[in-house]
Amino acid sequence: MIKISQLSLIAITAIVSASSFAESSFAEELQQGCAKVKQYTQQGKKFYDQKQYAKAVKQFEDQAAWAHFCKLNADESGIQVSDRDIEIANNNVGLSYAKLGKPQWARVWFLRDKDSKTSQYNLKQLPKPQITKDLQGTYVRANGFGQWDYIKVSKKQNKYEIDFDGYYFGLRGLIYGPNMGQFDTNMPVTSKQASYRYEDCTIKLQFLNDLQNGQKIEVEQNNGDSTCGFGHNVYAGGTFYKVEGK
After folding, report:
1. Is residue 187 within 8 Å of 163, Cβ to Cβ?
2. Which residue among 25, 57, 219, 233 is the one 20 to 30 A from 9 at the CA level?
3. Is pLDDT of 6 > 60?
4. What is the pLDDT of residue 23?
5. ∠ at Cα 121 (115, 122), nearest 5°?
6. What is the pLDDT at residue 137?
7. Is 196 exposed, middle or buried (0-12, 13-18, 19+ CB in 10 A)?
8. d(CA 172, CA 153)
9. pLDDT on residue 80
10. Among 1-5, 129-133, 179-183, where is mean pLDDT lowest?
């Protein structure tokens, strides 16, 4: 007969109780958040119609984030969200940024659904992106649930300082939070290429001009067996578009 101490039984019970509480807490927060999607949509439209575009952006960003999150967690949320609903939410944000005079932010939101007819139409309404020799500014790449990874570039003396902030949003990431990763590097102001190394991980950055979508950074990450010092599943590779100047 296997003997289990009373203390062990208490510990096991505590672990099971904590797990059950976490599950019920997540389900409750999920259902509450998903129930607000229509509210975000209605509030955003109200502010947009009132030409309060900064307030509209905030509501529509919440609409976009929760619409995507609720779709992926539909079995638990009990709320059905379609791909079209997410596309509309993303375009709502983009239209609000366009009205705010921030066409590059509008562009990256439309590019989240670049193959849709709605996004393609809205992209054509934006002014041509401004291409400058100055590489300073904020560059973004689309992440899950309406979120973004960031590269920020600033000039200090004869160098560009480059800072990356990346995230990985798991299936429950909008409530429990993402895994995170950062790195920083620099390059001479006369260069358009930079690199970063961590153990056997190499990250290469190339600054390019895209006449259609604006200034961008193409990032290539070769992991090897390393995580690059990032949190689990955080990845730096991809295309980052400039959305703001210095």
Report:
1. no
2. 25
3. no
4. 63
5. 100
6. 97
7. buried
8. 31
9. 86
10. 1-5
Confidence band for 233, pLDDT divided at 50, 70 and 90 = very high
Q: What pLDDT does 227 receive?
A: 81
Backbone angles phi, psi at 140, to 5 degrees: -135, 155
Q: What is the mean pLDDT of the chain?
A: 90
- Between CA 59 and CA 188 the distance in angstroms is 40
Angle between helices 103-111 and 83-99 (to 10 degrees): 170
State the residue for tokens 């379609």.
82
pLDDT at 16: 41
pLDDT recorded at residue 4: 46
Averaged pLDDT for residues 79-100: 95
Q: DSSP string covering the chain, please?
A: -----HHHHHHHHHHHHHHHHHHHHHHHHHHHHHTTHHHHHHHHHHHHHTT-HHHHHHHHHHHHHHHHHHHHTHHHH-----HHHHHHHHHHHHHHHHHTT-HHHHHHHHHTTTTSHHHHHHHHHSPPPP--S---EEEEEE-STT-EEEEEEEEETTEEEEEEEEEE--TTHHHH--EEEEEEEEEETT-SEEEEEETTEEEEEEEEEETTTEEEEEEEEE-TT--TTPSTT----EEEEEEE--
Q: How far apart are CA 161 and CA 165, in angstroms?
A: 13
Closest CA relative to residue 105, chosen from 120, 116, 118, 92 = 92
